[in-house]
Amino acid sequence: MKKAISTVYSFFQMMTRTTTENKSDKMILPNDLPMAVKIFVLHNFPSRSIAFAETRHTSKGMMYVVTLNDGIQAEFNENGSWKMVDCKMGAVPAALIPANIEAFMDDFYPCTPIVKMVKTDNGYEVTLSNYFTQKFSNVEYVA
Prior knowledge:
The chain is α+β, with helices and mostly antiparallel strands. Helices cover about 30% and strands about 35% of the residues. It has three helices and nine strands; from the N terminus they run H-E-H-E-E-E-E-H-E-E-E-E.
């Protein structure tokens, strides 16, 4: 009996702690997003609409996470600059891919689209449709 009560109490503590930690993350209306985020979605995904949006507080500041009506996700910093675009199995819009990365991909992976792209402090990390991940510095290819 003591063990059952202890287990229930531990579960209750875990659930309240999780809810308290994530209290700063919240859903927001698409209209409440920064104008830069709305323009990014409209320009790069013209045939899609924002299904829902949320704010997340991280160690680097506030982030906006947007999910489009077909499941595509994008993350933006508090200024509205994109940090990550995950198109699941569709291709990332060509306008987001820097010329040196596009040239490298055309040479080495000509028929494999980029489905996810992340801006890092040093450059970019791209994931291809075959789940291969490649990192690029701001200047050149990184092995």
